[in-house]
Amino acid sequence: MTIRVLLTGASSFTGTWFVGALADRGAEVVAPCRDALDAGDLDRRRRLARLVGRCRLVGGCPFGSEPFLELIRTAGPFDLLCHHGAKAGDHRDAGLDPLAAAARQSHGLERVLDALAAGGCRAVLLTGTVFEADEGRGDPPLRAIGAYGLAKTLTWQIFRHHAEARGLTLGKFVIANPIGPLEKPGLCRSLAQAWLAGEAPVLHRPHLVRDQLMVEPLAMAYADLALKLAIAPKAQRVAPSQFAERLDRFAHRLAAALGPRLRVPCRFVCAEPPEPSDEPRVRCGIHPLTELVPGFDVEAAWDAHARSLLAAA
After folding, report:
1. Residue 84's closest CA among 48, 124, 112?
2. What is the DSSP code (8-state) at residue 295?
3. Could you tell me if 266 and 259 are in contact, meaning their C-beta atoms sit under 8 angstroms apart?
4. What is the pLDDT along the chain (313 residues), one digit of tens a residue?
5. Which of these CATH numbers, 3.40.50, 2.40.290, 1.10.10, 3.90.25, describes 187-210+244-282+298-312?
6. Residue 2 DSSP class
7. 99 with 152: CB under 8 angstroms?
8. How far is the C-alpha of 289 from the C-alpha of 301, rounded, in Å?
9. What is the pTM of this model?
């Protein structure tokens, strides 16, 4: 039996990999995208190009909109909704309105769930973040980190309320900081770009303990959870963890892995004293990725990561 999945957020860094992992497992994926398929920056167009032939991409179809509901009616039925798409803003944006962001992420949710349930859909998989309240592991209490974390926390509660009211099984996949080919701007990408430019970047908060996850095994773990939910709906929450360590130690790990592959010196400097931060010192995932995806070839993943960085340079 072919599992049919409706997945939002396919044009994102992780979304691209999630679609690929689902397709590798034989799932049929329909991927509505908020914007037109030819819109956005070069990174987005590169990501979408990887999905041609692997899923059905539908542009100009925001979550909860009339085109989205029409897609459910005409392209369904679906076994599972994977709501991965989110436009909650940058996690350090102090001006973010968490209420407005949560409202955007859950716009039209009741109508979406009603339409899916009418077609026989029994489960929903929502993507969360360790920045949410009561997610991951770290310094207690596990409060939401910033307005972004609060927005994601509220979104989870909204989905939980409406899914449970309709008897739909709700699963959650909680992500820390993904890295790998086609990655979005962040610590790993900024370090690599600086090294390729012959620079020694500065780590402003080297003392923070965060969790970096290779995107390929992360996507495999996501696909495994998604298919479990679709085949035998049972509420589950998975929060993968891989390189959970101080940021300066991860930078050393990254330099050791990428230096020989990029063939450039990989030096960095730690700010002294570290830049002040109101974030908790520790916030990471819980479930070891090596157990979720046993036997994954980490060295091959570093090879692919380096090739992607060189191609984009």
Report:
1. 124
2. T
3. yes
4. 899 999 999 999 999 999 999 999 999 999 999 999 999 999 999 999 999 999 999 999 999 999 999 999 999 999 999 999 876 556 667 788 999 999 999 999 999 999 999 999 999 999 999 999 999 999 899 999 999 999 999 999 999 999 999 999 999 999 999 999 999 889 999 999 999 999 999 999 999 999 999 999 999 999 999 999 999 989 999 999 999 999 999 999 999 999 999 999 999 999 999 999 989 999 999 999 999 999 999 999 999 999 999 998 7
5. 3.90.25
6. -
7. no
8. 14
9. 0.96
User: Residues 163, 80: contact at Cβ < 8 Å?
Assistant: no
Q: Where do we find the tokens 């929502």?
A: 126
Closest CA to 183 of 50, 92, 310, 47: 47
The type of residue at 83 is H
Residue type, 165: A
- CATH architecture, domain defined by 4-179+211-243: 3-Layer(aba) Sandwich (3.40)
Residue 304 near residue 193 (C-beta atoms within 8 A)? no
Say if CB 169 and CB 234 are below 8 A apart: yes
User: If 0-12 CB within 10 Å is exposed, 13-18 middle and 19+ buried, where does residue 308 land?
Assistant: middle
Cα–Cα distance, 285 to 176 (Å, whole number): 6
In the chain, domain spans: 4-179+211-243, 187-210+244-282+298-312
**129's tokens:** 């973040």
